[in-house]
Design goal:
A hairpin with a 2-residue loop joins strand 21 and strand 22. Helix content is 35%, strand content 22%.
Length: 468
């Protein structure tokens, strides 16, 4: 039998911030069991990949990462050839590749069949994951504690996941297939997680779920939950991410306007604005409704920074519908915009709108990891052209909005040191990992602190300034 304290592990976390929280739980539980976190995947005894299976690009990235990990394992076997079989069996733990997450939950049978080199294949991480891993590899371990440890040390922000799954059942989305219906987490569990993250140095908590507006635990809704979280000592900023546009109420808007710790920021994935396409998606919005929502937000919260995401190439999106989207983007002048090209996902309603015959001249990976043909007569080149048009317009809007901030004094959460006098951070108007950054000049050690700075310049999506 092997001993956990003599073995190391490494986690590769793919996909969204919700997946990252699961990876941090794996990290904490593995360490509590006695394992040591390795600095690299190459040096680890157990390489854990927490996969994403949301859209085509994410699935391809997950598959490539798995295959790279298997190559690492094969290379480690080559290095160990100098040992006899008896020595290996008695003294050496052979490198293992463990794969979990959304991709494995969705395609477990296919992956098991096509990539047998994986040593442990697991679905979504749960409370049995680490004990299953230890049993599989004959490892004696310490009691496994349900604790969370960051993968990246010294970060001044953290994500707080308040629910799992989704019950919106948008036509294009595979999340309900993978994660199941919406399930809110207990209030006490969330508060314990939030308090722990702040105690470990987080100044900013980002509230996440597939749709945080749906949160409800007994009598506690999202507003009540955030008000409870805001009472945590030493917590400075709370950020609301992933709010379904059809579910944003006056109470949520008032929460952002009135709670001093909730920053003036909201992430609203509109996906599109054409009413016909939105109905096909299972949504109730249209261009007029969404413009009114943005108007209300800006009236009640003048400082607010709004982020949204748009999908391009959804079946039926003709040039007229695309022009409507462009007009909306120009009119709404949303602060932050991301967009992605529609990916037909098996099991969703929108999948049936497309010709899903696999393109067969691809590498020998399973059919579910390949590209697809579309039936809507929109070429890939045309979809890319639309993507570039949207981002070109948004780049100009972003530059103009950031230029308006030149001369202002803003609080900056400092995250990284670039050189002796230059730091990187974010303002209240920017979410971690997806929005712009603030390049800050300062002569003090200000890592993981909130400092006051004056904006002196801007570049496309980022601000430049000096500490006051």
């Amino acid at each position: 039998m092997f001993i956990a304290s003599e073995l190391s592990f490494y986690i590769i976390s793919l996909g969204c911030s919700k997946n990252l929280v699961d990876s941090e739980l794996i990290n904490g539980e593995m360490i509590s069991a006695g394992f040591t976190l390795s600095e690299t995947g190459e040096d680890s005894d157990i390489l854990i990949i927490n996969t994403c299976g949301f859209i085509q690009d994410a699935k391809e990235e997950s598959i490539e990462t798995i295959l790279d990990a298997i190559d690492l394992k094969e290379n480690s076997k080559t290095i160990l050839k100098k040992y006899s079989d008896k020595e290996l069996k008695q003294y050496h733990f052979k490198k293992k590749v463990v794969v979990t997450g959304c991709l494995t939950k969705r395609y477990f049978t296919e992956i098991e069949s096509e990539i047998p080199e994986i040593d442990l294949l697991y679905g979504i991480k749960d409370e049995k994951f680490v004990s299953t891993l230890c049993h599989k590899f004959n490892i004696k371990h310490n009691p496994i504690l349900k604790i969370r440890k960051k993968l990246y040390n010294n970060s001044p922000f953290s994500y707080i996941k308040i629910s799992d799954g989704c019950s919106n059942n948008c036509s294009y989305c595979a999340i309900p297939i993978i994660r199941g219906p919406h399930v809110s987490f207990p209030v006490d569990q969330i508060l314990k997680d939030a308090e722990s993250e702040v105690a470990n140095g987080a100044l900013e908590l980002n509230i996440i779920a597939q749709d945080i507006t749906m949160y409800k635990w007994e009598t506690v809704d999202l507003i009540s939950l955030i008000n409870k979280i805001s009472k945590i000592n030493n917590l400075k900023w709370i950020r609301l991410l992933y709010c379904h546009p059809d579910h944003i109420t006056d109470k949520i808007i008032n929460l952002i306007a009135e709670n001093e710790k909730v920053v003036p920021y909201i992430d609203i994935p509109f996906q599109h604005v054409n009413e016909t396409l939105l109905k096909s998606m299972g949504r109730d919005g249209n261009s007029y409704k969404y413009l009114k929502l943005i108007e209300t937000l800006r009236k009640k919260i003048p400082q607010i920074s709004i982020r949204s995401t748009f999908m391009l190439g959804y079946p039926g999106e003709d040039e007229k519908f695309f022009i409507e989207l462009l007009t909306f983007i120009k009119t709404a002048r949303i602060d932050k915009v991301g967009c992605f090209i529609f990916s037909p996902e098996e099991g969703t309603r929108a999948y049936n709108f497309c010709d899903n015959s696999p393109i067969l001249d691809t590498p020998p990976v399973a059919a579910w990891a390949r590209s697809y043909k579309f039936c809507d007569n929109i070429s890939i080149d045309e979809k890319n052209r639309r993507f570039n048009d949207v981002m070109s317009i948004q780049s100009q809007i972003s530059q103009e909005k950031l230029n308006d901030k030149i001369g202002l004094e803003l609080d900056v959460l400092v995250e990284e040191k670039i050189d002796d006098k230059t730091y990187m951070g974010r303002t209240i108007f920017d979410a971690p990992e997806v929005d712009g950054i603030f390049f800050l000049t300062a002569n003090a050690n200000i890592i993981n602190k909130i400092v006051r700075a004056k904006v002196t310049d801007s570049i496309e999506y980022d601000l430049i300034g000096e500490m006051i």
